[in-house]
Amino acid sequence: MDPEKLEKTRIRNKLPVAREGLPFIFVGGALTFFLLYVGFQIIAVFAGILSLLTIYFFRDPERARDCDDKTVLTPADGKIIDIKTLNDGKNLLGGPAVKISVFMTIFNVHVNRVPISGGISKIDYRPGSFFSANLDKAAEQNESNRITLETENGHRIVFVQIAGLIARRIVCWVDEGDRVKTGQRFGLIRFGSRLDIYLPIDSRICAQVNQRVKAGETILGYIP
pTM of the entire structure? Predict the structure, then answer.
């Protein structure tokens, strides 16, 4: 299949699991049945449990929420670990901003979703380290994928996929120039990680630190 068509298929996924997980699930299932066939029942049980955990990790529930063009949804499942006001221009937004950080454990849904409708103006992948994603230095030093979006009202926001201690694979299914919609799938990070989002300084934030959030459902705030 053409790579571009494959990416769009992943964005419009209708399966209960992310397509990125299918190879792992098929291999795990095949290994389980093989072990049963050759008589290694105990090992087969462990292989079967690992296969079920893999299915659970790559689950991709269908989600939809009606939003206006100023509503910002969380791009990731997990827990909000920080909400910070940045008054200088030394951040990814290039000016005063509000930064919200969402930490994802291995038990969260790991499919990421677009926080607000607009156009993708820039994607910047950067290799790096793999510190625990809940540490402050992870945002600066870990492997990351930074996506800049221009909203329909002319505002600019940035959201960043950040690899964690275990996560070694950041996946992004959108490209520069794409038009995207609020809640649309845009990527995935394997095995625990973090996602930061930078909003205009005058945004109205309604989320709170330690709040549990769901991508494509939970409202973080409203841009001007």
Answer: 0.86
What is the DSSP secondary structure assignment for residue 16, as one 8-state letter? S
Is residue 193 among the annotated active site residues?
A: yes
Task: Give me the residue label for tokens 């705030």.
Answer: 221
Query: Other C-beta atoms within 10 Å of 154: how many?
Result: 7
Q: What is the pLDDT of residues 39-64, one digit of tens each?
A: 888 999 999 999 998 898 889 999 88
**Which CATH code fits 71-222?**
2.70.70
CB neighbourhood size of 215 (10 A): 27
Q: Which residues contact 24 (CB under 8 A, 6 or more apart)?
A: 54, 58
Answer whether 218's CB lies under 8 Å from 74's CB: yes
Cβ partners under 8 Å of residue 194, min gap 6: 76, 78, 81, 101, 102, 103, 104, 133, 134, 138, 139, 162, 164
Q: Phi first, then psi: what are they for 204, rounded to 5°?
A: -95, 110
List 51, 101, 144, 193, catalytic entry: 193
The token pair at 70 is 């100023």
